[in-house]
Amino acid sequence: xxxxxxxxxLYRLTGDEATALNKAKDICLEQSVEFPGDLxxxxxxxxxxxxRIESFGPATASHETAPAYHANISFDVETASGxxxxxxxxxxxxxxxxxxxxxxxxxxxxxxLRQFQGPRFxxxxxxxxxxxxxxxxxxxxxKPMGLSSEExxxxxxxxxxGGIDIIKDDHGLTxxxxxxxxxxxxxCAEAVERANRETGQQCVYVANVTAPMDQLISRARxxxxxxxxxxxxxxxxxxxxxxxxxxxxDEIALPIFSHPAFQGSYVTSPGNGIAxxxxxxxxxRLAGADAVIYPNxxxxxSFSRAECKAIARGTEMPMGAIKPIFPCPGGGMSLEAIxxxxxxxxxxxxxxxxxxxxxxxxxxxxxxxxxxxxxESTLVSEIA
Amino acid sequence: xxxxxxxxxLYRLTGDEATALNKAKDICLEQSVEFPGDLxxxxxxxxxxxxRIESFGPATASHETAPAYHANISFDVETASGxxxxxxxxxxxxxxxxxxxxxxxxxxxxxxLRQFQGPRFxxxxxxxxxxxxxxxxxxxxxKPMGLSSEExxxxxxxxxxGGIDIIKDDHGLTxxxxxxxxxxxxxCAEAVERANRETGQQCVYVANVTAPMDQLISRARxxxxxxxxxxxxxxxxxxxxxxxxxxxxDEIALPIFSHPAFQGSYVTSPGNGIAxxxxxxxxxRLAGADAVIYPNxxxxxSFSRAECKAIARGTEMPMGAIKPIFPCPGGGMSLEAIxxxxxxxxxxxxxxxxxxxxxxxxxxxxxxxxxxxxxESTLVSEIA
Lengths: 384, 384
What we know:
- Two copies of one chain form a homodimer.
- By secondary structure, chain A is of the alpha/beta class.
- Chain A has two domains: 6-113, RuBisCO large subunit, N-terminal domain (Alpha-Beta Plaits, 2-Layer Sandwich); 122-383, Alpha-Beta Barrel (TIM Barrel), CATH 3.20.20.
- Chain A has helices at residues 17-30, 44-49, 84-92, 110-113, 122-130, 149-161, 181-199, 213-226, 235-238, 240-248, 276-286, 305-314, 338-345, 355-359, 364-383; strands at 6-14, 52-58, 68-76, 101-107, 137-142, 166-169, 204-208, 230-233, 256-258, 273-274, 291-295, 326-330, 350-352.
- In chain A, strands 12-11-9-8-7-6-5-13 form an eight-stranded parallel sheet, with helices on both faces. In chain A, strands 2-3-1-4-10 form a five-stranded mixed sheet.
- In chain A, helix 6 (149-161) packs parallel to helix 7 and helix 6 (149-161) packs parallel to helix 15 (364-383).
- The longest helix of chain A is centred in the C-terminal third of the chain and has 20 residues, at 364-383.
- The N and C termini of chain A lie far apart (61 Å).
- The mean pLDDT of chain A is 95.
- Chains A and B meet through helix 2, helix 3, helix 9, helix 10 and strand 10 of A and helix 2, helix 3, helix 9, helix 10 and strand 10 of B.
- Chains A, B: One of its GO terms (molecular function) is ribulose-bisphosphate carboxylase activity.
- Chains A, B: Residues 126-361 form the Ribulose bisphosphate carboxylase large subunit C-terminal domain.
């Protein structure tokens, strides 16, 4: 048999052994030829194009009652056609509609990985960009929607003065009349620069460029010209491949922050979808993000501590030349959670605190200073 | 209070009354300001920007054991910023990550609907385009992946000769070396035209243009120039808004077929996600598709008869000037299922049969003729 490169996907299949094995066999056909197996022509298509079960065995953890199996299934590299869209289609296209199938992880050979640039900055590059070589990074969001550009810019100034590293638009701020995109982005970028001149630090403003497809790149260019030093995009709203396009644009060349809006359905249903580290780690990296925002455990969302740890692992697991990226746990985080989070994530983390910053006291700049001191002092006490 | 236009979303919330009501209140904040309610400034933001519960009551059907409630929640039209991406963000952005929430339906005022063109053709326009005023339409797919462009074109010719109305690329055919996009599309379009000259019918070839973002529009233009008379795209792979952009392109101006690959996670988990008629009906129409492909009941996927009926309703429910579109049930359909499907869907349906066409006999053209006769004779016997 001719030797051809293959990539593989580890699926978790619910059901007893016979049911799960049937699911695995079905995936081999459904995700490649989508054709009845017995009607396939002999030769090349059967031998190479149809998926192949490389291993199959029980997956049930001891605390689970329903049985489940792991199937590692490989596909010919050419089925993905060097396209992120088609790679995702082979991994989880039609079977996203079949219950009881979860993508646990993907394993791509170098020949396929080389077809993707991945994150431009990655962890190391982002630390350099921000001038923060070691400690966890501090991240906040400008909100609520309904404030004017001037009010948002004032808030950005106050946060930058307080020592925050990264200040982003709330993900709901796009181009509303209250704070139109160009006006908001210019004012916020300018406000952060003004604070930087006073503090001597290099806080960055990250503009939300989640937008209609025909405006995504132009908004990103505008943001860069206006002084934004990073871009946020929600890949489930614009398409994962649009994030890749943004990340690969050599003229824009800014760090990309991935936001999970509209993406939750892939992970909220146990037994269906894409496992947290595969979605927020591996796939997000392939799609070019330098940092991935997701809801932390203990906040107002439902991710568990184990799931968050798994995401952090997914952001750094080896993927050829595709760089490790920063996990950005957020979503209803409080300042009190910081020591525990440091314990879980270590130093290579970006703490995203939005509303929780306002709760600490009436002076936003003071609250930011407290946030930064809390992170720094916890680190010192860790070392001591 | 100033009068401002609002749109509303009907959510289904699992849990007892207090839990569900808390979820509804949470949605009002999460999907608009994403900010602690007690810290919001008085005035405009509280009065208009925060979501508003318009109604709340039990939703549990008699056969269900777990309680659930319906909340109808309204949002200021300006929060959506006239953008499909941001409208989806308000409807289901962050709460896609919170379990026990389903989007049942959306209700948009004319002022918002007018910001979207919707399907260019719709049901009536597609019937005119195809020259088939009344009967159900016949749809098949070229596969399996791994065949050469020449082999796929031969198959297209045979199907067109047999009286199929619409012949599409399988959704996994993009730009693989076995059948590169330009070569495949040219040959298949030419083959269908050749058959049309022989039959005097007007079968159309639909090219799959699901592609990397920077190639989507150029592939669509190529396909049109090569003679394709329709385009297929998987909106969950390229982004729903990319489908809208394709549909609104006045130079391309071809019917758009929406494919559900990678979209299943929104509907596979009971209690989470987006209800079938909202996703495959309302949202798909807003995003510009003229026909929506989804797995039929009784095939190899898991949608129920009731869910399929609901999708069909969603494709035609009133939405201002946004046209009704065709449901295209497919996915492991057999020819034997046709009479029952006619019973469920009536005449305004596109029957998509792929592998099932090959099973009937060795001569593909004969199989297609049988498919067409089956549909026509069932209609005649219905009338008799």
